[in-house]
Amino acid sequence: MNVQQIDLLVYNIGSLVTMQGHPGPRAGESMSNVAAVKNGAVAIADGKIAAVGPEKEVRDKISGLTIIEELDAQGRLVTPGLVDPHTHLVHGGSREHELTLKLQGVSYLDILAQGGGILSTVRATRQSTEEELYQKARTSLDIMMLHGATTVEAKSGYGLTVEDELKQLRVAKQLNDTHPADIVSTFMGAHAVPTEYKGRPEDYVKLVIHEMLPEVKQQGLAEFCDVFCEHGVFTVDESRRILTAAQEMGFGCKIHADEIEPMGGAQLAGELKCISAEHLLAATDEGFERMREAGVIAVCLPATSFNLRLQKHARARKMIEMGLPVSLSTDYNPGSSPTESLQLVMTLGCLNLGMTPEEVITALTINAAHAIGRGDTIGSLEAGKQADLVIYNAPSLAYLPYHFGINHVDTVIKKGKTVVSNGQLVY
């Protein structure tokens, strides 16, 4: 980069996780290579990284340039800004009343069949004004950023009418325009069949394809399309039709695949070359292989299986062994995963999925960035990339998942600007 001055120099970094040295998503053994630097520094100019590496080398590279501000990391851990590639950020209401049902052993799909679950949130979202949805989502987005997330994917899917889906997506766009965090929007009108279409799923599929998708595209409100491919929700054939129509309109595709039962959603993700397949608790080895061959990124959601008290979790170790790039996410939503903390996901990724701290941070930075089509601009600390980074009150990477239940974040820098300092919002 040719720069006239350095706006911010972060120095005296004890352990600097850069994620450098790999052009695409990391898979297999490369997920363990986080390209860490001891005694590091990051120089930032015009919202981008000008130089990164050992402090002496960085200072040599920027020698002669005026440094406007310096920030002493005090020997602490620094990573790229965390990326949350699967959330349901914009919604009305909450579903704490379902906790008792879960404790009584009522399943997620049974709650949905009784008109609860997603359909309960649909009612609350439809009743909420755009301003109410914005304020609620902004509060959650602030919490995400306080915990280190600098880029967040946000799905619709709690409107299930043309206008209410557009309402959710307009709120996500407004958040992207007004909040420091970057929002990547996904249209998910195929999240459930709404009550008014009960017994008429074909009519609802046609509504999604012929009315919702074209309107979302025309208004430029989403980059991706997602479908909940699951027993009692959308079949593989219905999912294929919706996603194929979305691809023909220019959307990238994602899929909620094989969360509860082995429906073949992972195979469909491979067939359609989706950018990502999400959940995957019940996915088969065949599904993993089809995904690997097609370059699909696996997005595992350990907070969801934890909260649903499931006895099985996504087989992340198998995926890694097979060469699948694995990402992680909160799946933040009002029912199955009401948490905004990617640091909780780090711990669950280690304890329940068997991933190492290095694999976890890879999953939450560069692989998560690729899972939302942003791998060229975020997810690693490299010259020319967006200056998104996090300073933790932690001495090492392993300390983050090891010491769980608290927020380790001290400072968050987004596009070169400090947005969290001493654990407090300052934007």
TrEMBL record:
<keyword id="KW-0963">Cytoplasm</keyword>
<feature type="binding site">
    <location>
        <position position="336"/>
    </location>
    <ligand>
        <name>4-imidazolone-5-propanoate</name>
    </ligand>
</feature>
<keyword id="KW-0479">Metal-binding</keyword>
<dbReference type="GO" id="GO:0050480">
    <property type="term" value="F:imidazolonepropionase activity"/>
</dbReference>
<feature type="binding site">
    <location>
        <position position="95"/>
    </location>
    <ligand>
        <name>4-imidazolone-5-propanoate</name>
    </ligand>
</feature>
<protein>
    <recommendedName>
        <fullName>Imidazolonepropionase</fullName>
        <ecNumber>3.5.2.7</ecNumber>
    </recommendedName>
</protein>
<feature type="binding site">
    <location>
        <position position="158"/>
    </location>
    <ligand>
        <name>N-formimidoyl-L-glutamate</name>
    </ligand>
</feature>
<keyword id="KW-0862">Zinc</keyword>
<feature type="binding site">
    <location>
        <position position="256"/>
    </location>
    <ligand>
        <name>Fe(3+)</name>
    </ligand>
</feature>
<dbReference type="InterPro" id="IPR032466">
    <property type="entry name" value="Metal_Hydrolase"/>
</dbReference>
<dbReference type="InterPro" id="IPR054418">
    <property type="entry name" value="MQNX/HUTI_composite_N"/>
</dbReference>
<keyword id="KW-0369">Histidine metabolism</keyword>
<comment type="function">
    <text>Catalyzes the hydrolytic cleavage of the carbon-nitrogen bond in imidazolone-5-propanoate to yield N-formimidoyl-L-glutamate. It is the third step in the universal histidine degradation pathway.</text>
</comment>
<comment type="similarity">
    <text>Belongs to the metallo-dependent hydrolases superfamily. HutI family.</text>
</comment>
<dbReference type="Pfam" id="PF01979">
    <property type="entry name" value="Amidohydro_1"/>
</dbReference>
<feature type="binding site">
    <location>
        <position position="88"/>
    </location>
    <ligand>
        <name>Zn(2+)</name>
    </ligand>
</feature>
<feature type="binding site">
    <location>
        <position position="259"/>
    </location>
    <ligand>
        <name>4-imidazolone-5-propanoate</name>
    </ligand>
</feature>
<feature type="binding site">
    <location>
        <position position="86"/>
    </location>
    <ligand>
        <name>Zn(2+)</name>
    </ligand>
</feature>
<feature type="binding site">
    <location>
        <position position="158"/>
    </location>
    <ligand>
        <name>4-imidazolone-5-propanoate</name>
    </ligand>
</feature>
<feature type="binding site">
    <location>
        <position position="331"/>
    </location>
    <ligand>
        <name>Fe(3+)</name>
    </ligand>
</feature>
<dbReference type="InterPro" id="IPR006680">
    <property type="entry name" value="Amidohydro-rel"/>
</dbReference>
<dbReference type="InterPro" id="IPR005920">
    <property type="entry name" value="HutI"/>
</dbReference>
<feature type="binding site">
    <location>
        <position position="86"/>
    </location>
    <ligand>
        <name>Fe(3+)</name>
    </ligand>
</feature>
<comment type="pathway">
    <text>Amino-acid degradation; L-histidine degradation into L-glutamate; N-formimidoyl-L-glutamate from L-histidine: step 3/3.</text>
</comment>
<feature type="binding site">
    <location>
        <position position="335"/>
    </location>
    <ligand>
        <name>N-formimidoyl-L-glutamate</name>
    </ligand>
</feature>
<feature type="domain" description="Aminodeoxyfutalosine deaminase/Imidazolonepropionase-like composite">
    <location>
        <begin position="40"/>
        <end position="60"/>
    </location>
</feature>
<dbReference type="Pfam" id="PF22039">
    <property type="entry name" value="HUTI_composite_bact"/>
</dbReference>
<feature type="binding site">
    <location>
        <position position="191"/>
    </location>
    <ligand>
        <name>4-imidazolone-5-propanoate</name>
    </ligand>
</feature>
<feature type="binding site">
    <location>
        <position position="88"/>
    </location>
    <ligand>
        <name>Fe(3+)</name>
    </ligand>
</feature>
<feature type="domain" description="Amidohydrolase-related">
    <location>
        <begin position="77"/>
        <end position="419"/>
    </location>
</feature>
<keyword id="KW-0378">Hydrolase</keyword>
<feature type="binding site">
    <location>
        <position position="331"/>
    </location>
    <ligand>
        <name>Zn(2+)</name>
    </ligand>
</feature>
<feature type="binding site">
    <location>
        <position position="333"/>
    </location>
    <ligand>
        <name>N-formimidoyl-L-glutamate</name>
    </ligand>
</feature>
<dbReference type="InterPro" id="IPR011059">
    <property type="entry name" value="Metal-dep_hydrolase_composite"/>
</dbReference>
<feature type="binding site">
    <location>
        <position position="256"/>
    </location>
    <ligand>
        <name>Zn(2+)</name>
    </ligand>
</feature>
<keyword id="KW-0408">Iron</keyword>
